[in-house]
Design goal:
By secondary structure, the protein is an all-alpha fold. The protein contains 14 helices and no strands. It has 3 domains: 120 residues, Actin-binding Protein, T-fimbrin, domain 1 (Orthogonal Bundle), CATH 1.10.418.10; 97 residues, Calponin-like domain (Actin-binding Protein, T-fimbrin, domain 1, Orthogonal Bundle); 65 residues, no CATH class. The protein is globular. GO terms for molecular function: actin filament binding.
Amino acid sequence: MSISMTLDGKEDQWIVIQHKTFINWANEQLIQGNRSVENLAQDLCDGVKLVALVESLQFKKIGKVYSKPTSKIQMLHNVSLALRAVADDNVKLVNIGTDDIVDGNLKLILGLLWHLIIRYQISSNKAKAPPKKLMLQWFQNVLSGLAISNFTSHWSNGIALHALLDFCKPGLSPNWRKLSPNDRIQNCRQAIQLAKDHLSVPKVISAEDFCSPDLDELSAMTYLSYFIRKNSPGYYGTLNWICKQLKTTNISNLTTDWNDGYYLCALVVSVGGEVKGWPKIDRKNHIATCQLGLDSAK
């Protein structure tokens, strides 16, 4: 049974969109194991594919699973195995229990999938700020010419998405400023296809859903997260922008190359900031130099 057949009013259309988006995301993780899901409430309830999903995300086996469970006890065992593995990996599962999954509670299953997306797709254990805030700040910085303060209505006409493509790969959508906000579906459809063809961003959401007034921010964040995670188009777009800004090719990552604080200070200076003592700073005192760069950036 289609989920849309089980809903009564328009207020629930966000669940339809989120369900489709999370199914597509899950299938992207399951594809290497030749598995797939079509309905989260039905296909995860015995725990077999849920365990496979967790193992795909954690890159390891998590225990013995009943591959063809014939009783609820065996299903509960499988689901418990999966939930324990993600809980041990610092995924906080509030009010989501094994019975909820086995009984096919869709809203709680969607909640579980969202926790997995946050932990393994969007964020990490090291991030202290909320994922939504970090994502929004990054988009606001790289799309400074646009008003971006949410993950729904400010993306629905497709223009911000085209601008994002052009940041990640300059020249991919050079005429994005000329796009009409009235061509919502066409803009979104073209951008999502360009992202798939040129940036290998999977189409986990449809153009119709992305521009829908019923789009929920979790679905939008799931799709947009493909642009900002490590080794993503946005990651390399940021790296290329920095190298161009600093006129150097010596920066190859956004982690260890920044440990001594030098490039942070250099970046602050390049955008018009003042760094005390620049360029004669002590690169051996990593903590002090990093702090100098952070203070100067305020």
